Fold this protein.
Amino acid sequence: MKELSKLMDFRPDIRVVDATLRDGGLVNDFYFTDEFVKALYAANLKAGVDYMEFGYKASSEMFDPDKFGKWKFCKDEDIRQIVGDNETDLKIAVMADVGRCDYQKDIIERSESPIDLIRVATYMNSIPTAVDMIEDAAKKGYETTCNIMAISNAQEADVKAALDMLGKTPVNGLYIVDSYGALYPEQIARIVDLFMNAAEKYGKKVGIHAHNNQQLAFANTIEAVGDGADWLDATYGNMGRGAGNCAMELLLGFLKNPKYKVYPVIQFIERYMTAMKESVTWGYDVQYLLTGLLNQHPRAAIQFTREERKDYAEFYKELIVQD
Amino acid sequence: MKELSKLMDFRPDIRVVDATLRDGGLVNDFYFTDEFVKALYAANLKAGVDYMEFGYKASSEMFDPDKFGKWKFCKDEDIRQIVGDNETDLKIAVMADVGRCDYQKDIIERSESPIDLIRVATYMNSIPTAVDMIEDAAKKGYETTCNIMAISNAQEADVKAALDMLGKTPVNGLYIVDSYGALYPEQIARIVDLFMNAAEKYGKKVGIHAHNNQQLAFANTIEAVGDGADWLDATYGNMGRGAGNCAMELLLGFLKNPKYKVYPVIQFIERYMTAMKESVTWGYDVQYLLTGLLNQHPRAAIQFTREERKDYAEFYKELIVQD
């Protein structure tokens, strides 16, 4: 059982990362209005959020800029248009995917950029490229995290090896990403333990990014907090790919640090997310539960949602017959 | 951290209670069609559910039978119309509220009734009446549980005293009811510990009934399982008062006992719950999060929902100004 004193008090090391534009962008192809993004930035400032992730630094060679909103590419000038010189305590983050980012070229010196944090997203099989991206970004002056996706499919021995490789880089944070929303809190406890061992050895922080396939994104996030994770991802109204993420309004309600305020989040949801929900679909539903339960990528469930199918039982049969 | 062997294996003592008609009845005034109830009974049989709660044994002196569906009253003949003599392994439960049930008269001898389990629901201030109801039902031959509501508002010393009083009765199960959906898993762990101490002393079982105000109904239920609770309430599609309950489809996906099957639950949801959702409203929303966060009864949030209000920020201010 966790210590009572730890539940009543707070750890000043905790960092809340708003991933609404980035993970939420996956459900609206990053077409957010400037008004929305400016209001979100203002809400994050008022709510005491520590980092705001604007989107991806995606390769414009690989992805057609005419087919996505600008936050898939997060050009420095587009961020500046929202935040100016960002003379605030809110830091700016972007995600750089292994194999989908021209990082040498598109990520410039931090001193020239409004961005503070580069989050390198990788699967277990591309850790060496992630290491190169982390070193590149760190050399340019950025804070960095490494977000290891699909952790529920990784072998413990491989995770240990990857954490040892990453421990030797300048990376600041090691992120557990439950991409499939497949993990239960008890499994999160074990994985955080694994990450914490490496983090303590190498002087890193541990982060958590959860998905809500089994209505556990918030529960898994607070489980991880109790186990020592300091960097916590959340999105307004759970907005995110498939079943969505840990809700910011739940997370800030839980955290005890008086700097965090839930009221600006509620205001933002009322003004912007309710309308967003009318045109864009995300959030817990049976099809996402099923891919989560079966520890599968949600792509089949996303397709099921797009086709407005409701034949959950047939879908279940499709998922388990994997000839 | 919980033992790995306990997570991979299962406890044969676990009992799953389907509370769809009872807690779900609170959102549709118990107007379920006979077709729905028969199909639910069939689904529970196929899914391996242990108990099906049909509704309340409410006093027809206090409540007008013309203003509610029949499952608010659960007459024995109405249950028989669905289950016949119920020659199955699925047991039949009803809830009897302290102060709202003419138990001496309306609960007949078990040998004459299709009902197996009487669930006595009480607040902390009416334990002596609950004790009388438990003794009455036990004398008539029923299994009994005592469901202590609004546990998040109870003092630990009072809970201990109540558990000692209940421990000396013939009650089979001591139920933790998070009526306000206010508790975090870490608090559940502490409360289960309190209940387990009494349960072990008196040879009782512990149960959990969770609400989903903070998207934690499932997480709190599986936390309680890991801590030793054996009786678990769930509802199809989370159907229940306000933010709803722990979803049956999530719970059966988690439990490892091969007797539990998730497929019949998915089938039932597809055939019946999707349609139900079109005419009846329940489930997680910001207003329920707020009452849960503030550890308040959800009645203001239910009213907010009924009025189709969406001004969450104003509602938050109403909740915190309690002059």
Chain B touches chain A at residues 1-2, 4, 7, 184-187, 189-190, 193, 212, 214-220, 222-223, 226, 247, 249-250, 253-254, 262-263, 266-267, 269-270, 274, 286, 289-290, 293, 310-313, 316 (CB under 8 Å). The first helix of chain B runs from residue 4 to 8. Chain B has a mean pLDDT of 96. The domain at 4-279 of chain B is CATH 3.20.20.70 (TIM Barrel).
